[in-house]
Amino acid sequence: MKSYYVYVLRSDIDGRLYKGHANDVAKRLKEHNTGKTKSTKGYLPWRLVYFETFKTKPEAIFREKYFKTGSGREFLKGKIVS
């Protein structure tokens, strides 16, 4: 059974966070760190700082959207160590 992930990356350059979803986090992190993602290539390198696993893609997308809200950002502050 395939799993889906919501992940949070932190830029080593300025500490900004990027939230996304994927079914292969290692592959997706590599894409971010090789400049294949337009929105993140100016802030390389990225480190994986948090992830959650889901059984379905819609669940992962729903959680990703939550992380992009004010309360979602507050939740992540409590989970991610600086």
Automatic annotation (TrEMBL):
Q: Which domain of life is it from?
A: Bacteria
Q: Output the InterPro entries linked to this UniProt entry.
A: GIY-YIG_endonuc, GIY-YIG_endonuc_sf, UPF0213_domain
Q: Which SUPFAM superfamilies match?
A: GIY-YIG endonuclease
Instruction: Tell me its family.
Output: Belongs to the UPF0213 family.
- PANTHER family reported in the protein's UniProt record: UPF0213 PROTEIN YHBQ
Protein name (database record):
Uncharacterized protein
- This protein's species is Xanthomarina gelatinilytica
